[in-house]
Design a protein that fits this description.
single chain; 362 residues; alpha+beta; 2 domains; eight-stranded mixed sheet; four-stranded antiparallel sheet; 11 helices
Length: 362
């Protein structure tokens, strides 16, 4: 099974060659269209950190240009010589182009744009993409890509795992709408969580369970071959500030009394709801046992965020680190400002994995 070590390895080795499946992009984007059919209408969409010749992001948005009602599509790539993995062969499509330059193709990024029906076949699609080499290598922090960012309305991509935090800073400072892929653990990062708490960033439509499968170009880092394609499973999620219907769906919950009697989780039936030793709140180990009638503060795993409805719950903070200090959480048995409780099975103090503290809204 793939786990979070995949992401750590990617960061250490700068292995960023994970390609998102077309079906995953389609499923996610369709959720925003169901909520608001005009989400992308008359918008300029930028796909940075992309490899347009291989990317399903470029394919999807180009093929659906007219359905989405886009005004302009921009896709930029990162030069192969700037990557760790340099196993690269120019596509036939690129080599046959009059713009092809064998000296530039490995050291320059590329920009692909779609705005019009260039082949005059009556529709705008992937065959109408126009491209040229960038002045630099296509790094998202370069002045020319920053300029494209500032011209865009919505930024969509699977950013490099190895530089996710610099990318997030680059993205959030743009004050643009966005839809990106990230690892699950990032929601508790001090750089991200304040935006989640302030309801300026939230989970995308796709459920978190099971992670996502990506095509990988690294033949030494494969989890499974699917339909002849080498794939890697990574605990990834969509993050966005675009609205979608699922985030407004309230959870259907049982009362505390009913959970204690009927919950499918034996530990809830046996031990009930455990109170923290160093903070006035109860621990909620599973989303489906949140009691509908509890008015106090509850600590719940971060996986709650893919089911979080801002009209139903208020996010107060995280029960660890600086956020815990701000909430007034006392130091625990280890001398750290983390939530802790007495484990009813062992009678010993214990710290649950990072908890998000929430409270039911009236």
């Amino acid at each position: 099974m793939a786990n979070n070590t995949n992401l750590g390895a990617a960061k250490a080795a700068k292995n960023d060659e994970f390609y998102t499946q077309y079906a995953d992009i389609q499923k996610e984007v369709n959720a925003y269209l169901e909520y608001n059919p005009d989400t992308f209408r008359d918008k300029t969409v930028l796909l940075p950190c992309d490899d347009p010749e291989w990317s399903n992001f470029t394919r999807f948005f180009a093929q659906n240009f007219e359905r989405l009602g886009l005004k302009r599509l921009i896709s930029t790539s990162y030069a192969v010589e700037s990557k760790k993995y340099k196993d690269y062969q120019p596509t036939l499509w690129e080599q046959e182009s009059p713009l092809f330059d064998p000296d530039k193709t490995r050291i320059k990024g590329k920009i692909f744009e779609l705005t019009r029906d260039t082949n005059q076949n009556g529709r705008i699609d992937i065959d109408d993409l126009e491209w040229h080499y960038l002045e630099g290598d296509g790094d998202f922090r370069s002045p020319e890509v920053c300029k494209l960012r500032d011209e865009a309305d919505i930024i969509v991509t699977n950013p490099p795992f190895s530089v996710f935090l610099p990318f997030f800073s680059w993205l959030i400072n743009s004050e643009k709408n966005f839809l990106i892929i990230a690892n699950k653990n990032c929601v508790t990062y001090k750089e991200l969580f304040p935006y989640i708490k302030a309801n300026k960033l939230w989970s995308g439509r796709t459920e978190w369970a099971g992670g996502m499968w990506f095509e990988t170009k690294d033949r030494n880092d494969i989890d499974r071959i699917i339909d002849g394609v080498p794939m890697k499973n990574i605990p990834s999620i969509w993050l966005t500030n675009l609205d979608h219907g699922r985030r407004h769906e309230r959870l259907s919950l049982m009362s505390m009394k009913d959970n204690l009697r009927y919950s499918k989780h034996e530990d809830i039936r046996r031990y009930g709801y455990i109170k923290y030793d160093n903070y006035d709140a109860i621990d909620i180990p599973y989303v489906d046992v949140i009691p509908s009638d509890y008015e106090g503060v509850m600590g719940i795993p971060a996986t709650f965020l893919d089911k979080y409805c801002p009209e139903q719950f208020e996010i107060l903070g995280i029960g660890t680190g600086d956020s815990a200090k701000e909430l007034g959480i006392n130091k625990n048995y280890r001398g750290r400002t983390d939530l802790s409780f007495t484990n009813p099975e062992t009678g010993k103090p214990s710290c649950p994995f990072s908890r998000i503290l929430i409270r039911k809204k009236a």
